[in-house]
Amino acid sequence: MKKTETQKGVIHAGFSYLLWGLLPIYWKLLDHVNAKEILASRVVWSFIFMVVVLLLTKKWGLFLSTIKGFAKNKKQMGALTIASLLISVNWFIYIWAVNSGHMIEASLGYYINPLISILLGMIVLKEKLTVYQYVSFVLAAIGVLIISISHGQFPWIAIVLALSFGLYGLAKKLINVDSEVGLTLETLVITPIAVIYIGFLFISGTNDFLNAGIPTDLLLMGAGVATAVPLLYFAKGAQKIPLSLLGFLQYIAPTLTLLLGVFVYHEHFSKIQLLSFIFIWSALTIYSLSKTKLLPSQSFHLRKEKGTSI
Q1: What is the dihedral of CA 68, 69, 74, 79, to 10 degrees?
Q2: HSE of 281 in the Cβ direction (CA atoms, 13 Å)?
Q3: Please, how many CA atoms are within 13 Å of residue 25, restricted to the half-sphere of its CB?
Q4: Domain extent for 186
Q5: 63 CB burial (10 A radius; 0-12, 13-18, 19+)
Q6: What is the pLDDT along the chain (310 residues), one digit of tens a residue?
Q7: 79 inside domain
Q8: Is residue 307 included in any domain, yes or no?
């Protein structure tokens, strides 16, 4: 029987989150390479890969016309630049965290990302929240507070990852372009900086690319594919399924990352961390249910939230 559009959407979106959840394995294979060089390679090869995708899908003309349109629209150009910088920060911190033994805290960042999006929507877009979403945010805040007090320091890795991705989603709201064209533009903005940095590494003789063996070269080049493929599958899936269902699926990635950190790479997971995660998991459960009809509506729910950034 032919699959429905919703079923296809679930498969595409689920596959994208599965890839994102397993991506730490890829970065671990490059843990001998400086995180900055990995990021630079990721940006450059992502751009090259996306150019090939645009040519194969016959969207090169759309790409060029979009660039011309952005040249006349300073607001969208600014949003694009900000989005590019934010996603670059997010990529760098995530790669560094994974290869520095902070995979559990990295997963925490993506667990609380939807709740950061709620806060940004409330503060920046003046969106009204339901009582369940307020409760979700309070529970998540308690979870972050617990882990901060127990560690004696603020979980900055998780917060920077959540904030950078949440703000990235906010900036993307101002950019209404085709998904493939958008990703190509974002990598285009930051590619000159990445190329300059790679050139500096070659001049100083500190480069790993073309200097640390063919396996390393192939992995650095493949970083572009590893970056773009899940994003493209996500874009396909997001168009075919409801936001509430997409909200449930998005927890596949941080859950896989958490499991990898604990059971594969043997990072320490204390009882205090478990308690913190329980508060955050509870917050996410309430938040996710609030996006469905499983919880009763409230009379003071002023208006439905338009959506969150993924």
Answers
A1: -100
A2: 11
A3: 11
A4: 5-290
A5: buried
A6: 346 888 888 899 899 999 999 999 999 999 999 999 999 999 999 999 999 999 999 999 999 999 998 888 888 889 899 999 999 999 999 999 999 999 999 999 998 887 887 788 778 877 777 888 888 888 988 988 888 887 777 889 999 999 998 898 888 877 878 888 988 999 999 999 999 999 999 999 999 999 999 999 999 999 999 999 998 888 888 778 876 677 678 889 999 999 999 999 999 998 988 999 999 899 888 877 776 666 665 534 444 444 333 3
A7: yes
A8: no
What would the two tokens of residue 136 be?
């979700």
Residue 15 domain-assigned (yes or no): yes
Q: What is the pLDDT of residues 109-168, one digit of tens each?
A: 998 887 887 788 778 877 777 888 888 888 988 988 888 887 777 889 999 999 998 898
In the chain, how many domains are there?
A: 1
User: Exposed, middle or buried, 302 (CB in 10 Å: 0-12/13-18/19+)?
Assistant: exposed
End-to-end CA gap in the chain: 31
For residue 68, tell me if it sits in a domain: yes
Question: What is the reported pTM?
Answer: 0.86
Gap between the Cα atoms of 247 and 134, Å rounded: 17
